[in-house]
Amino acid sequence: MSGDHVRTVTRFAGLRAGGPGIVAPQHVSWIQSQVRGRRRYAVLREDVKLISVDDHIVEPPNVWVDRLPARFQEAGPRIVDQPGHTQAWQFEGELHKLNLLGSPQTRVFRTDGTGEDLYARHYDDMVPGAYDPAARVVAMDEDGVWASINFPTFPRFGGTRFLAAKDKELASACVVAWNDWLIDEWCGTAPKRFVPMTLIQLWDPELAAAEIRRCAAKGSRAVAMIESPSPLGLPSFWSEYWNPVFAAAQETGLVLCMHVGTSGTLPTPAPESAANSDAVPISLCGLNSMMSLADLTFSGLLHRFPGVRIALSEGGSGWVPYLLERMDYTWARTRIGVDRSISPSDIFRRNFWTCFISDRHAIESRHSIGLDKLMWESDYPHNDSEWPNSRKFLAEAVADVPDEEVRQIAETNARNLFNFWD
Question: 343-351: long-range contacts at Cβ-Cβ below 8 A with a sequence spacing of 24 or more?
Fold first, then answer.
């Protein structure tokens, strides 16, 4: 324990550090226990503007109705009322239930027979901050969060709803409409509070690259990118299929945000793991980010496009030191199929960033991971979110971390990565 830290501990514990500020070793454990007992009073510095790099939007009903060309209106996404006070999106003649896994704070519970679980099936079942940008700003103020990046819901987190569309011209128009709505309307409501994100046409990499450039010119800072293409029936990251997308991301500086689950699956060791509860796949979702990191690292894609920046969204961070060590160990012993010009851990330090909601091990391992590689996320309005107490929970988690390191994790790493400044 350093002298500075001991002085801090004694101050928090209500003690007077005598002499040069050194506390006898036999008193250190007692002092630490006093600090632990008072952590509920931990606060972030008021000048830290907390940025969440992973939140979510439930699209309001007007997104596509207002923006699609007339010829696509009938087949385009629209909200329709359903029995039992539920709603659904109608798209290409098919119904997709409106669905949000909220939290006890973001799910509005009613007693009209629609269920008392955490799944919102109607806009009435969720707080307005889930779908209204002005209400979201109010919710962020209540939570002590300054800015956020928001993933889509109906298009799915990586836009794969439109990948599955029958009419790809309609699907492309839906991608463009969502992007324009997010930048012009959602982010336009409070430009200093929302980091613009972009969907792409996953089925056409040249069209996707053009959309990245178009949205970058409008102020976008990120791309909602899939974490693994093969499970979706697309060519893998090992192919040249993705070259136009990665070239456009490198050219524009837009960050590729790879959210867990955008490959279409989460880890489910048994059929019952998914059928009976969300607990197993959600507990193991970090495995998806581990797989993406390893696959991209060895694929050669980041050797061709070394300037691409990738954020592994909602996958946690505490696992990073183990995987980097394991990849380096494997890389050093593999005789074929690996590029010897740069180690996996150096690729991570150059190309990847991670984030966490609650990850004490990541905080303790922050220097092994790389302090500049850690960011915070709220996950509002989902069940993992601590809203409206996010700032308080993060403050407690980083109570032992120096203030300037806290600022990096809570704010400046995200600002630097996404080039997002007030």
Answer: 344/294, 344/297, 344/298, 347/297, 347/302, 348/293, 348/297, 348/320, 348/324, 348/373, 349/373, 350/302, 350/306, 351/296, 351/302, 351/306, 351/308, 351/309, 351/310
For residue 399, give the DSSP letter.
Answer: T
Q: What are phi and psi of 373, to 5 degrees?
A: -100, 0
**Of 9-23, 175-189, 357-371, which gets the smallest average pLDDT?**
9-23
> pTM, whole model, 2 decimals?
0.90
Measured distance CA(381)–CA(136) in Å, rounded: 10
Instruction: Band the pLDDT of 400: cuts 50, 70, 90.
Output: very high
Q: Residue 143 corresponds to which amino acid? A: D
The model's pLDDT over 306-352, given as tens digits with 9 standing for 90+, comes to 999 999 999 999 999 999 999 999 999 998 999 999 999 999 999 99
pLDDT of residue 18: 40
Three-state DSSP class for 144? coil
Sign of CA dihedral 117, 394, 192, 354: negative
Residue 132 Cα to chain centre, angstroms: 19
Cα→Cα distances 104→29, 126, 250, 283, Å: 37, 10, 40, 19
